[in-house]
Design goal:
This protein is of the alpha/beta class. Helix content is 46%, strand content 16%. The protein binds guanosine-5'-diphosphate and magnesium ion (MG).
Length: 437
Amino acid sequence: MLSDTICAISTALKQGAISIVRMSGEDSFSLIKEISDIKNVEANRIVYGHIYDDGKVIDEVLVSFFKAPKTYTREDMVEINCHGGVYVTRMILNLLLKKGCRLAEPGEFTRRAYLNGRISLAKAEAANDLIMASNRIQARSAIRGLDGSVERLLLPLIEELKDVLSLIEVNIDYPEYDDIEEMTEEKIRPALKKWISECEEAVDKAERFRVIKDGLDTVIIGKPNVGKSSLLNALIEKDKAIVTEIAGTTRDLVEGRVNLKNISLNLIDTAGIHESDDKVEKIGIEKSLAVLDQAQLVILVLDSSNIDEEDERLLELTKNKNRLIVYNKSDLKSYANQLCICAKDREISQLTDKLNEMYQDDVELLEEDVLNNERQIALMKEALNCFMEMEKELDNLSIDVIMIEIEEAYHHLCAILGKEYQEELIDHMFANFCLGK
Ligand SMILES: Nc1nc2c(ncn2[C@@H]2O[C@H](COP(=O)(O)OP(=O)(O)O)[C@@H](O)[C@H]2O)c(=O)[nH]1
Ligand SMILES: [Mg+2]
């Protein structure tokens, strides 16, 4: 039910200088009067006062009043800034619950903002992304989302489709109006080409940008003792993986994360791949092959001073992967025109420079309007599919069938912004929100 008044602790439930208890709904203003000495509620003001329970002061607070409709949820809202003790904060929340306020579900404030038409679904997602952001690029991209990047990207296309749809509709419903432009398959064809290329570009950019935002799943592979673990340690600048001269040291997967200038790597160091009779090492090798399958980038490490047929097999095994071949132990031997590193001395700039160069163009997508998540990309692909199916069949389709196809694509694009929502999807999405947001 949308009309009840909800409350939640909006700050992290830890000890801190202040905490914020938030309310939204039509009883927000009257509820605060019931639990405090604040009697003159004034919209868009911060008021000083005390919260009481059973006649005893439980905290000294500052209360902000926001009057509907110019609020986050478009409802009356109150924010109680109290002292940030976990106990006090909980007490204030419990008082509100006792007075009939309902505990907000995760993401319910933002859900109301969306359902009350203040923000689009894409912006609601961006609000959540901003909370979850763990690096500069994720935060920056979420801010752009809040600023309407997905709307900017989609609205021109949505408007165009709407125009074409209404024109076809008029053509069908009012054939007697001959002064209105008639939509024909021939006129649709060039438009369709343009729509396909726009959707393809949006998907491509979103997928490239996702890697920039979330990091590239990268595995380091090679035969035993070439210096894979030394390379992982050099990249993450820590001695995380054990390095020895004994072949088969790394038996399990070792993970690390590194933020280079243009790209973050989600690294996995693996057990050296070779023929082995050792039971534990064999399991490690199987795991290496499994992660190799999933990897978005493979760094194949060779020992410059010792290249043999085992390396040939690995070169063959990885030939269809997105791969970089690095020649380690450049102190012993080095090759011109190859990526040469000395992992032992953490001299790996040839590799990191190459990685930054590879993702230079993609990092610039940060300045562009791109789709932000799997849900949005999936819907864009659905729209793209509709257009592509239509293009294949265009010669055999009547205008009313064309209309149905365009309509379907239109709905997929609208759904990205949440213009047409399915209850189930929304429940799922908002359930992933933080409490009190
Ligand atoms: N000379 C030289 N030795 C290295 C270099 N990198 C690693 N090593 C040595 O090679 C051996 C194997 O290294 P390690 O990182 O455990 O290899 P892994 O089995 O591929 O993980 C160790 O003795 C390292 O000290 C390098 O750049 N130059
Ligand atoms: Mg190792």
